[in-house]
Amino acid sequence: MPVYLGLDLSTQSLTAVAIEVSGRERRVAFEESLNFDAALPQYGTRHGVLPQTDPLVATSSPLMWAEALEGMMEMIARDSSIALADIRAISGSGQQHGSVYFGAAAAQALASLDAARSLESQMRGVFVRPESPIWMDLSTAAECAEITAAVGGPERLAMLTGSRAFERFTGPQIRKFFKELPAAYRSTTRIHLVSSYAASLLVGFDAPMEPGDGSGMNLMDLARSRWSSEALAATAPDLEAKLTPIAASWTVVGPLATYWRARHGFPAAKVVTWSGDNPCSLVGTGIVREGTIAVSLGTSDTLFGLVHEPCYDPSLTGNVFGSPTGGYMPLICCKNGSLARERIRDEHRLDWQTFARALGERPAGNGGAILLPWFDAEITPTVLEPGPRRYGLDPADAAANVRAVVEAQMLSLAIHSEWMGVKVNRIHATGGASQNPAILQVMADVFGAEVCVVGGGNAAALGAALRAYHADQRAGGRDMPWDEVVAGFTEPWPASTVHPIPDHVSVYAEMRKVYTACEAHALGRGPDPAPVIAAFGRAAGQR
Ligand code: ADP
Ligand code: XUL
């Protein structure tokens, strides 16, 4: 049976999902993850990130990603659950915004990969920057301001590219590199996204970028899916020559390079443009029509949907990316996602089971106690001075802090996504923490919507596999409708569905005011929220 492979090169791990598809017969045949910290300890990452002294800087190793890719391909080649020869097409998903900087030696190294040697040994030394800035890097506030001014203001940039300037976006990161190390910038022959870099390793030449991921750079004209000369000029000189072209999401870049065939026994499968992890998750959670949203609880917590027309968030909090299905995806991203939950879990010496139990020990609304979990600098809302803020919350109370971290995360997602204007009836959940039904219950109660796990929690890798399938069909002359592409893989699992509890839904409708008041106060934009918290507490006593 034809096999399609999806690879997700995300913050903490590389995940592979292989699907078998023949007409209506469809199944996931292989699903494995390789955790960077555990499998490749020689790089010294923690949660996939290299140690830094500046809390706003976040980098990872492009060489480690290459070694992980080869490790995963080896794992797939050795596994007996799929016949390698049946692999028709491969695509992938990369953590968004991260960038890789090639020097002059890279093109030759890629073109002449020697099957007798490891990929890592041949890629070593081709990077102008041995460390890649990643999406968690928030050190480019100055560059964001400069780009914004050059383009004519935040609204203008958002209208053009789908987002105002965001610190983690690739354009501001490139500008910072150009300003700090101009000679190194000049000697850079190619700048890739994580996604196009990984695709290049598979084909043995520079792969194009894809509009879903390209729109996370503040460089792409969102409506036209092409580089914006205005945004390029505002960012750094001669930039277009250093970028690869933008190609449609279903483009077959080329066959898998001889290296993978000779060294690991893969067939000459089609390699399809890679996209970002969120655009791939859109497909892998089955959001192929307007009206449903998905929430990914991975390293970051993201919420996204699908629309047909290009747009931007007038409140300038969120982003609009291209969708690999052809439309556009509004998205908000919170940086303090899984790692903030882990922080509270570890501070109170819990595991995920006891964390879930502690969550149930406190009532919905937590008596008005609020934890703004900004352990790291935050993206939504912008917080560049890290540090959690507590209102009416004893830091030593385990159950209250567990409840508070999850409630604040869900309230923040709900409030900051209001600009999307979607009436939410059902949420498709994915990502590592979607395995935890207690967390999903708070999500259901805050949004007043049912929540179901889709894509087995690995929606990004599954979405990449489904994109590979779609592109293979298209290359064969059949433009398969997306409903048909995802059928059999992304239906909500009835057993995983969590229903909202009506009493809790009304508590959270009130609690939005408390969260909003605390956030405004913490950001220096509002008065002391004590009266709002007290009113909420009094109302809770009467409920
Ligand atoms: P990414 O793709 O961004 O690397 P994942 O989607 O793989 O991240 O999610 C990893 C996170 O999932 C871990 O950091 C961990 O905190 C979280 N996680 C795993 N299992 C659970 C669980 N049972 N409850 C809550 N969170 C969990
Ligand atoms: C989205 C974002 C993160 C990364 C890592 O804009 O920054 O979700 O894609 O997952």
Number of helices: 21
Radius of gyration, CA atoms, in whole angstroms:
23 Å
Average pLDDT level: 96
Task: Give the uncertain stretches in residue-range form.
Answer: none
- Describe the main β-sheet briefly: 7 strands, mixed
The CATH topology of the domain at 3-273 corresponds to: Nucleotidyltransferase, domain 5
Helix/strand/pairing class, anyone?
A: alpha/beta
Give the CATH architecture of the domain at 3-273.
2-Layer Sandwich
What proportion of the residues form beta strands (DSSP E)? 15-25%
CATH superfamily caption of the domain at 3-273:
ATPase, nucleotide binding domain
Bound molecules: adenosine-5'-diphosphate, D-xylulose
Instruction: Assign a percent range to the helix content.
Output: 25-40%
Describe the structure.
The chain is an alpha/beta fold and 543 residues long. The chain has a domain at 3-273: Nucleotidyltransferase, domain 5. 38% of the residues lie in helices and 18% in strands. It contains 21 helices and 21 strands. Strands 1, 2, 3, 5, 11, 12 and 13 form a 7-stranded mixed beta sheet that branches. Strand 20, helix 17 and strand 21 (450-453) form a beta-alpha-beta unit. Helix 5 crosses helix 7 (170-180), helix 5 crosses helix 11 (229-235) and helix 15 packs across helix 16. The longest helix is centred in the C-terminal third of the chain and has 21 residues, at 502-522. It is globular and about 70 Å long.
